[in-house]
Amino acid sequence: PSRTFHGNNRLLTSQIASHYEAINQGQKEVPEYFNFASDVLDKWTQLEKDGRKPANPAFWWVNDKGEEVKWSFEEFGSLSKKTANVLSEACGLQRGDRIVAILPRVPEWWLLNVACMRAGIVFFPGTSQLTAKDIFYRLQASKAKCIVTNDTLAPAVESVLSGSQFLKSKLIVGQGSRDGWLNFKELL
């Protein structure tokens, strides 16, 4: 059984499970192309708009200070589209390009993840515990054209940038600015 919000006892969980079970049993064809952002997030947004699904949070984040970020499916979809535009336009990324994200699990991490799915950009997550040597290895091995991090981790990233031959853009998630970095929140 799944947990429901706002007192509604009927979620589409059973419909989704039966759809994928039908695929597993060969009763339905596996789609040639599947994109979570458009095939799930955008469809759930439309179901809410049509009144066929109750409005529930698509994303609900709470930090250790009790601060919350809560997005509906429509808000999450819209923000992920804007994020995909930031990656494509400001960062110059195209389908198949790679991005390394070294962030703690902040809301922007999920936005970047879904935006990459939406735009066909390959998302390489990295833990915020990586050392400069780890970061350099990941940049080289992935041939990433963009890196995303926060104010705290930017110095470790900057210490290895001179040896990174593929990197074209640097995106920072934070309040301040940093020389040579694009500010995600300002671009969004």
From TrEMBL:
Spans traversing the lipid bilayer: none
UniProt keywords, alphabetically: ATP-binding, Fatty acid metabolism, Ligase, Lipid metabolism, Nucleotide-binding
InterPro entries, per the entry: AMP-dep_synth/lig_dom, ANL_N_sf, Mitochondrial_ACSM
Domain AMP-dependent synthetase/ligase residues, every copy: 52-174
Highest taxon above the source species: Eukaryota
GO cellular component: mitochondrial matrix
One biological process term in Gene Ontology: fatty acid biosynthetic process
Gene Ontology molecular functions: ATP binding; fatty-acyl-CoA synthase activity; medium-chain fatty acid-CoA ligase activity
Pfam family, one: AMP-binding
Its EC number(s): 6.2.1.2
Reactions listed under catalytic activity: a medium-chain fatty acid + ATP + CoA = a medium-chain fatty acyl-CoA + AMP + diphosphate
Family according to the record: Belongs to the ATP-dependent AMP-binding enzyme family.
Protein name (database record): medium-chain acyl-CoA ligase
Organism: Nesospiza acunhae
The encoding gene: Acsm3_3
